[in-house]
Design brief:
three-stranded parallel β-sheet; alpha/beta; 10 helices; about 15% strand; single chain; about 220 residues; six-stranded parallel β-sheet
């Protein structure tokens, strides 16, 4: 499968999702319960970060037990991590930044990839490798809406998933930008809710997020 094919799949997956919860789970059970709550609320994909020892086991469990949710593995920093996530069945991959060696390997990945960048130069480098769907990170720190508008002219073919600092209150404005296919965020999975097992709050927040997507798309 060519990078054009996997990038097309990435765009379709992100556009279908609209809002991508960025999930950091301390245990497989936590990942299972919060993902189920997000799915019940109407969000169909997650970015499960590789920031905890439980992440890879959680990937395996979610792929087996929650077929309705697309599991993307995030915070992919090395080629070795990329290969392991693909081996364990990740639906897609996300990086916070993409140095050349990693970018070269990701360009050959058999699954959709959303590589991260923060500057026009980084995005041009990724586009030269065939990427057309990228993550802007950390979105608000590097200019937010102003940056997205600035990129839209010279990089007209680039589709972006901004992540980092976006909240429930600002998600709609980000999602309304013509070059944005999806918005990443963690406001629907705050640590205090997860520690308290308040899955009803996660579900309700996910439902509000799904509502934001529906509202923006209906305009």
């Amino acid at each position: 499968m060519s990078i054009a094919d996997t990038q097309s799949q990435a765009e379709q997956l992100l556009r279908r999702s609209g809002i991508l919860p960025v999930v950091t789970a301390d245990s497989v059970d936590e990942a299972r319960k919060l993902s189920a709550a997000l799915l019940k609320g109407g969000l169909t994909a997650i970015e499960l970060t590789l920031r905890t020892p439980a992440a890879l086991d959680a990937l395996v469990a979610l792929k087996k037990e929650l077929p309705g949710i697309a599991v993307g593995m995030g915070t992919v920093l090395t080629v070795e991590q990329m290969e392991k996530c693909i081996e364990l069945g990740a639906d897609f991959l996300v990086t916070p930044g993409t140095p050349p060696e990693l970018a070269d390997a990701l360009a050959k990945a058999p699954i959709p990839v959303v590589p991260g960048g923060a500057t026009p130069t980084e995005f041009l480098s990724l586009m030269a490798r065939g990427f057309r769907v990228c993550k802007l990170f950390p979105a608000t720190a590097v200019g937010g809406i102003t940056m997205l508008k600035g990129l839209a002219g010279p990089l007209a073919d680039l589709r972006i998933c901004p992540t980092g600092g976006i909240t429930e209150d600002t998600a709609a404005e980000f999602l309304s930008q013509p070059n944005v296919v999806c918005v990443g965020g963690s406001w629907m999975v705050p640590k205090n809710w997860l520690k308290a097992g308040e899955w009803d709050k996660v579900e309700a927040s996910a439902a509000k997020a799904a509502g934001i997507v529906a509202s923006v798309r209906a305009r």
